[in-house]
Amino acid sequence: MVVSINAVDDNLAAIIKAKRNILYEYPVADLYTRKLNYDRLEMSNNIKWTDGGSLNSDASYSEIIIPAGTTNCLFPLYLYSNNEIATKNAVEVRDIPIRGLSPYPYNLQDTFISSLKNGLKINLSLRFSVRINRLFYVTIRLVKLRQGGYDNIDAWGPQYDPSENWDPVYEVEYSGEISLNADEGLALHFWASTGIGDDLAITVSNFEFWATFYGREEPVFIDVISPITVLNNLLKSMTDSTETYSGLIDDYDPRMSMDRLSTSYIMAAESARGLPNAKLYTSYKKFCDWMEAEFGYVPVINENTVTFMHRDKLFTSTVVKDLGTEINDYEFSVNDSLIYSSVKVGYDKEDYDSVNGRDEFRFTNEFSTGLNLRDNTLSLISPYRADAYGIEFLVQKRGEDTTDNDSDNDVFFVSCDQDGVNLKLYRAYTPSQLSGLLSPETMFNFQYSPRFMLEANKKYIGSCTGMLKFTSSDGNSDVAIDGVKETDDFSIPERLFTVSEVEVETSDINSPDDLLGLVSLNNRGRTVIGYIKQIKSYIGKAKSSSYTLIVKDIKK
């Protein structure tokens, strides 16, 4: 790939070449940072219970014993050990042992789930079969406990006819959304019209009981760093001298522009976790790889300055020199290193402990170019992460006793908007423009999806193909942004140059002033225009120059 153009082979270029792979460690407290008000990602919470009866030998049913002397009795429920409650500040859930009530639930401790905040919406589903093992009329009630009393939500019981023998078997089934405010909860209990004289056995089978809800934790502040700050600290670390070196990013204006780059801020994983002595770990190469894969920007090294520019700007459309027909030794070749059979774009796949992570789409997508000349893959993989769930899961670990985490050395970046003296997440799309997500209202970093990375590099990719065909994805492949799916084929109508090269010799020894412009020549009636890859000047009796050009176009 075209990674950099060295206008002058100076000392800075040599230093960078030698030290670009060194990983540097920066205490975040020593860097200039901004405070991001991270307002959290809404998470799906899934909770399951099993009934608290005693299983029979083949586990086909369980038996619950209602103790003698009770009228109302809590239905025993026990939580599964693998439940996922990502939003810790929203609910309390508990095991419910069998216990008699007189005359109905009064205490939140009688509820299998209770709310810690107002306006919580819980989707509750339950279904199972019940058999009363002797003819004693017992129903099951689902109630909502509130301040000062309770409301019946639903009830189930046998079809009872006092003049005939009645069937003691009945089905319990419910599915619906229930709203709870703080200090309100749900309870399930047996109810009998009269006190039970002797212990009563209830058989329960085909038991399913679960609740889901969406919740969002409280906002936190996270230190974030501008790309310019990171770049200049890397230059300072690599040069380690009294010379003044500076790093610039073309068209980077966070105060005025809302483009993908200008809204980007870098975040250390340890800052997301809230560690008191958070550090940022990165190298110049990782910074370069991020800028190139994410934004199509490459470094131009000139004297004491490194300027990151979009690759397209390095290839102008102006012809700066015409060699005409005064050429010799015309040689045409194909640079097969630029012929790719596939393109991998995005980010390395992350393995999450949470089922919510299945919603993440900022991983690796792969596309086919349709070319089969050689097995060569163009990799546009960012070493910095943009996965929103990765950030959320790290923030959830704040306050935990463990000090080490697999992601602690990772570097993230987020799209931010100005919010007074602080920053807030920049959500560039409305929920109506998004589909295929659990929570489009709170999702962020859409503009860093793999498809936008293709967009940033499309003219370079276009050197070998005009169309990319989607083949696979490591993440959520159902996402669509503003009507465009991440799995759609990707058309490339323009290209920076072709994969062809031409080498010629000419008696014209005057090099063009602008080395980034086009050079033209005429060979057997065909006009060839291309960019300078290399110029060699031969000084002697027969003065001449040789040009190696990356072909832009050949015209009759």
Give the distance, in angstroms, between the N- and C-terminal Cα atoms: 29 Å
Largest sheet descriptor:
7 strands, antiparallel
Say how many strands there are.
39
Strand % is: 35-45%
Task: Using the alpha-carbon principal axes, give the shape.
Answer: elongated
Please report the number of helical segments.
6
Oligomer: single chain
What is the average per-residue confidence, as pLDDT, rounded to a whole number? 93
pLDDT under 50 segments (min length 5)?
1-9
Portion in helices: 10-25%
| Structural class by secondary-structure content | mainly beta
User: What is the rounded Rg?
Assistant: 33 Å
Task: Describe the 3D structure.
By secondary structure, the protein is mainly β. Helix content is about 10%, strand content about 40%. A hairpin with a 6-residue loop joins strand 5 and strand 6 (about 60-65). The longest helix is centred in the middle third of the chain and has 13 residues, at about 225-240. Mean pLDDT is about 95; it is low at about 1-10.
